[in-house]
Design goal:
The chain is 27% helix and 26% strand. By secondary structure, the chain is an alpha+beta fold. Strand 30 (626-627) and strand 31 (630-631) form a beta hairpin. Bound molecules: alpha-D-glucopyranose (2 copies). One alpha-D-glucopyranose is lined by residues 366, 494-495, 510, 647, 656.
């Protein structure tokens, strides 16, 4: 069952039914001001940090779903008189009143959402977006009267302010029911809770029309014991003119609108965030009145429709440019629209928000993950190389002197997070993959010479290259009894906690370590080490550092030997050794016999490509782990809680790391399949979790069909095929890498752009445009045989190998013809 359709020309997903299985979200904003917005206008906004600068409220885990949003109510002021409409008002976004709408359509695009509906012959369209460079959001309402008679309407707006710190806002009522303050001036509602003391920021809610009333106290607007679905003010048709003093500050405007038959009217609402210099907070200075000198011109500007239109065009252009860096035309529409639009868009959102704020991440939880951010970078480095550079240096600055890493850091302070600490032994290795991806994309070798601190500590600076070397060294200094890397708190699989042994309810599986950690080892980290060390080897060769290259070669060889000796199970790679030195991910195990991660990572590291072991491992994946909804993380699922395994066995079978389809890992197998030249199987796996390809089963899948989810329930769950945790997941970056670099084969390397597709046999070819180091590569791929043999013709000349030599500087575009036979 579908709830909408893709409009690829406009790069939108169009939802045609408001009651989707879950709220289907989009994001507003791409710089400092952000908002989540659902298909029924639910969601909230914040400035930079979803916890500490929350502008509006949202009620997670509430009923009905998706409570709190950017609401407008339309009231028919003649309804009572004619007695036609049972209730004189409705929500043009369906929520929160949930009245039946005669027409409904929500268009989610890149950084904007348009919700259009019709009820009682009144059409409404609301366009929500955040202009580039501004800390505000626009709600542009267009009303059209399709009646044969004049319409006498009222529009009420409603936003519920959050008292800034979202955590405190939802817990500390003894204080925060007595702090709320607002100002109402020139029709603008200002939210200024705590502005009197240490805050120098406030929010504002403005409207383009002369007001017929306003409210700023929630219970006056709603009425006691009423919800957002039936505000008493809207019901009665006049505002309470309430001025919040403590309790629950809200913003609501009331505007009366007379529309002749066929007449149309635009009303603009602005919700924004503004800071003032500390010494100029008040005007006059000795008053408690907000100084509005800076904010007024901004408000005036965006209350004018022409400026709104320009800002919207600028936003569209911004996304044209970002998405234009890679565009493909293949025979498969799901591939095309994910690569060209949605997957790239999702990668930008994971860049912006890491794992902080989504329908499944409350914005008050964790900081930026070290490994997450490094992997996310793989998906956005081609769109925003400068910001990728900055991100890399930020990450490296939080690295420990030992070469290890804080597991998380706080984006506002850019410091490592002490609460979560370190000791996730895979973490530092991802910095190598990210840095090397950046250098391949940009050719910016100078980044390796940048002097970067450790742990943010002055005087500890070394070149970034040394940070990477220390990351490898960190692994080498922590080898276990089998010569494999010690796992520490966990490796990529945060829930495989082999040193935790927690039997205390509520204890954190991630930060508790009850064992010394000198026994449990990870085959996955061994594979990741080899993968990272090979990147470092390529860099050393490029820099003609023979000593380093030699050293790395030796280290790689000895890690490979350790894997073959103790990490190979006969038909697949093992997963780990536990604290008792017992194997996990082996045919010897009753549960957890085979895991996906080491199969993907070890093969990506090049293990077993010759001699058939990689092929064998992939056969085992296909046999034991693959389902039609994607590849499960492990099998058989853990049927009970095992003290020595930790969080992984805390989930019911089929969910999350306990044998769920943890989508992040699926593209690793896709990449591995292409390394063996098996394009059919690679693309088949790619499609199983491709959200567009799953659109048809939206009723089962439940999450948005335009973005990846972290997890799809595995075969052991009664809800097999149902997705969760959409939007902010490493799945976005890895799928982007797998489809663009491995299947389509357009791959940045240190020497230039490699083009070596491994596509399905049924494809006759594809076309692509890729902007790489300032040059536009126009690529035409033609298949003339069933194999994978590639030959390249660049600007009419045959070249050897698969890498297009770097063109002369300032070459605008080059044409590459690729033949596969
Ligand atoms: C979550 C975490 C990520 C981890 C994964 C597997 O997605 O953000 O760091 O690798 O779970 O446990
Ligand atoms: C939970 C999640 C896991 C995540 C971890 C760390 O355990 O299940 O996916 O990686 O938290 O935040």
């Amino acid at each position: 069952m579908r709830y909408g359709f893709f409009d690829d020309i406009n790069r939108e997903y169009v939802i045609t039914q408001p009651d989707t299985p879950l709220p289907w979200m989009n994001y507003l904003g791409c710089e400092n001001y952000f908002g989540l917005i659902s298909n029924t206008a639910g969601g909230y906004s914040f400035y930079k940090d979803a916890r500490l600068r929350r502008i509006s409220r949202y009620r997670y885990n509430n009923t009905p779903l998706d409570t709190g949003g950017r609401y407008l109510y339309i009231r028919d002021n003649d309804a009572g008189k004619k007695g036609k409409i049972s209730r004189p008002y409705w929500s043009p976004t369906w929520m929160p009143t949930r009245d039946t709408l005669d027409e409904y359509e929500c268009r989610h695009g890149q950084g904007y959402t348009v919700i259009k509906s019709k009820a009682h012959k009144i059409e409404s369209q609301i366009r929500y977006f955040v202009p580039l460079g501004e800390n505000l959001e626009i709600w542009e309402l267009t009303l059209t009267n399709h009646r044969k008679s004049a319409a006498n309407l009222s529009v009420f707006s409603a936003i519920e302010f959050c008292l800034w710190d979202a955590q405190d806002d939802s817990t500390n009522y003894q204080r925060n029911l007595s702090t709320g303050q607002v100002e109402i001036a020139d029709g603008v509602i200002y939210h200024k809770t705590e502005y009197r003391e240490r805050r120098n920021h406030f929010a504002y809610f403005a409207c383009s029309e002369k007001l017929d009333g306003y409210d700023t106290q929630r219970e006056t607007f709603l009425g006691q014991y009423r919800g957002w679905d039936s505000p008493v003010v809207v019901e009665k048709g006049f505002s309470g003119e309430s001025v919040a003093y403590g309790w629950q500050p809200i913003g609501s405007h009331h505007v009366k609108v007379q529309l002749n038959p066929g007449q149309q009217k635009k009303i603009i609402f602005l919700l924004g965030y503004q800071e003032n210099p500390k010494d100029r907070k008040f005007d006059p200075p000795d008053s408690q009145t907000i100084n509005k000198k800076k904010v007024k011109p901004i408000i005036t500007r965006y209350l004018r429709p022409a400026n709104v239109e320009d800002a919207f065009d600028a936003l569209r252009l911004h996304w044209d440019n970002l998405l234009g860096r890679i565009q493909v035309t293949t025979p498969d529409e799901h591939t095309n629209r994910m690569v060209n639009i949605w997957n790239a868009y999702q990668c930008m959102m994971t860049f912006n928000l890491s794992r902080s704020a989504s329908y499944f991440e409350s914005g008050i939880g964790r900081g930026m993950g070290f490994r997450d951010s490094n992997q996310d970078l793989l998906g956005f480095v081609h769109m925003i190389p400068d910001r990728a550079r900055e991100r890399l240096l930020d990450l490296a600055t939080t690295q420990l002197k030992s070469g290890g890493a804080f597991h998380q850091y706080q984006p506002l302070t850019k410091e490592g997070n002490n609460e979560v600490g370190s000791g996730f032994n895979d973490d530092p290795l991802w910095l190598i993959l990210a840095t090397s991806a950046y250098v391949k994309e940009t050719g910016d070798w100078a980044i390796l010479d940048e002097l970067v601190r450790y742990e943010n500590e002055r005087g500890t600076e070394t070149p970034l290259l040394e940070h990477l070397q220390r990351a490898l060294q960190y692994t080498l200094e922590r080898l276990g009894p089998h010569g494999l890397p010690l796992i520490g708190r966990a490796d990529w699989n945060d829930c495989l906690n082999l040193n935790c042994f927690s039997d205390t309810p509520g204890q954190s599986f991630q930060t508790t370590m009850n064992k010394e950690g000198k026994v449990a080892e990870s085959v996955m980290i061994a594979g990741l080490f080899i993968l990272a060390a090979k990147e470092m080897f390529a860099i050393a060769n490029y820099l003609e550092d023979e000593d380093q290259a030699k050293k790395l070669k030796k280290e790689i060889a000895s890690m490979e030997a350790a894997v073959w000796k103790s990490g190979w199970d006969g038909a697949w790679f093992r997963r780990a050794y536990d604290d008792f030195g017992k194997v996990l991910g082996s045919k010897k195990n009753k549960e957890g016999k085979i895991f996906i991660e080491p199969q993907g990572i070890c093969i990506m590291a090049g293990l077993g490509l010759r001699g058939g072991k990689a092929a064998k491992a992939l056969e085992s994946v296909s046999k034991h782990l693959a389902t039609r909804h994607g590849i499960m993380l492990q099998q058989p699922a853990f049927s009970e809680y095992y003290l020595h395994l930790g969080e992984i066995s805390s989930y019911p079978p089929g969910y999350k790391e306990n044998a769920g389809i943890f989508c992040h890992t699926n593209p690793w197998i896709v990449i591995a399949e292409t390394m063996l030249g098996r394009g059919d199987r690679a693309h088949d796996y790619y499609l199983r979790i491709n959200p567009s390809n799953r659109e048809e089963i939206s009723g089962l899948h439940k999450c948005e069909p335009y973005v990846y989810s972290q997890m799809i329930a595995g075969r052991d769950a009664p809800t097999h095929g149902e997705a969760k945790n959409s939007w902010l997941t490493g799945t976005a970056a890895w799928n982007f890498v797998a489809i663009t670099q491995s299947i389509l084969g357009i791959k940045p390397t240190l020497e230039g752009l490699e083009i070596s597709p491994c596509i399905p046999t049924s494809w006759t070819g594809f076309d692509a445009v890729r902007v790489f180091r300032g040059t536009r590569y126009e690529i035409q791929v033609v298949r003339i045989g069933k194999g994978n043999k590639i030959s390249l013709v660049v600007e009419g000349k045959h070249i050897h190998g698969k890498v297009v030599p770097l063109p002369r500087k300032r070459t605008k575009s080059i044409f590459v013809k690729v033949t596969i036979r």
